[in-house]
Amino acid sequence: MSRMFRPLALCLATMTIGTAGGVAHAQKADTWPNRPIRLIVPFPPGGGTDLVGRSVGNKLAEALGQKVVIDNRGGAGGNIGTELAVRADPDGYTVLIGSIGAMAINPTLYAGKLPFDPQRDLAPISLTSDALNILMVHPSLPVKSVKELIDLAKERPNQLSFSSSGMGATDHLAGELFNRMLGLKTTHVPYKGGGPAAVDLAGGNVQFSFNTASAQNALWKAGRLRALAVLSPKRQALLPDLPSIAETVPGYGVNNWYGFFVPAKTPRAIVERLNAEINGILKMPDIVKQHNAGGIVPLGSTPEAFAKFIAAENEKWAKVIKEAGIKLE
């Protein structure tokens, strides 16, 4: 072959390879799934992430006609399991259920320490669920509304404390957002989980919390805690008599959310199929009932809307973390 035609031949060869790769990719998407799918849950069994992952995963197996294997990989605030998903082949056979912590808080909380970027390295499928968080106080505290709590905190700077499930957890940041929006000075007391945080609040060792409904419901029903408001931007159908904090503090809102992801570069056809199946599952009466029993509201979204939501959440919580000077030891 003459030198004149070598560049052209190389170009044609490259185009051929690219086309073949595209055809192979499409063929994989067309035959997907033809073997079991691994669903990574980056937290131990028993929590909200696990509940949503297992309930949706079981239905997804029925819808796709393939087994969905739940793989709990807890540790490092969800980072270990998330990295496993990031490193997996983008072939549709690894799915991740992520949460606000791993996707929108950890990128700033672990700044410079994460070997991956969730927004770059994962493709969102659907925003699936929102776990209700409730502002609760110990019954001995002389407040029965958000306004009364704010007034008391202003009267007693540095004298009131709030519990959380851990440093950098959603309920911790919810408290810091509350403080910063109102100029309050209250003390954060971290615990190893939402359960211990709720028990110590019931014991009167701290005065209030922004914990999940599931962690506090039993103590609330027993009269050992007093609920003031939900943290979501609007009132929730599950607790229609509870106002939102935003009704007293305009602009305040915390969504303790979950959603499904696949590795970046997963074929679009697979992403769309998963989105359609998962959104359909979230409307099933038994799934709604199961979610609601755990204080979780099923949602559903397009991949594009979920991506925009994640970007906004990252920006919001990065600001709170930096302004509050939150650092992990």
Provide structural commentary.
By secondary structure, the protein is of the alpha/beta class. The chain has two domains: 35-131 and 255-324, Bordetella uptake gene, domain 1 (D-Maltodextrin-Binding Protein, domain 2, 3-Layer(aba) Sandwich); 134-247, D-Maltodextrin-Binding Protein, domain 2 (3-Layer(aba) Sandwich), CATH 3.40.190.10. Helices cover 46% and strands 17% of the residues. It has twelve helices and eleven strands. It has a six-stranded mixed beta sheet with strand order 2-1-3-10-4-11, with helices on both faces. Strand 1 (37-41), helix 2 (48-64) and strand 2 (68-72) form a beta-alpha-beta unit. The termini are far apart.
Structural domain count: 2
CATH structural fold name of the largest domain = D-Maltodextrin-Binding Protein, domain 2
What is the number of helical segments per DSSP (H or I, 4+ residues)? Answer: 12
| Radius of gyration of CA atoms, rounded to a whole number | 23 Å
Average of the residue pLDDT scores: 91
CATH architecture of the largest domain: 3-Layer(aba) Sandwich
Secondary-structure map:
Elements: H1 6-31, E1 37-41, H2 48-64, E2 68-72, H3 79-87, E3 94-99, H4 100-109, H5 118-121, E4 122-131, E5 134-137, H6 146-155, E6 161-164, H7 170-182, E7 187-190, H8 194-202, E8 208-209, H9 213-221, E9 226-230, E10 256-263, H10 268-281, H11 285-293, E11 296-298, H12 303-324
Parallel strand pairs: 1-2, 1-3, 6-7, 6-8
Antiparallel strand pairs: 3-10, 4-10, 4-11, 5-8, 5-9
Helix pairs in contact: 2-10, 4-12, 7-12
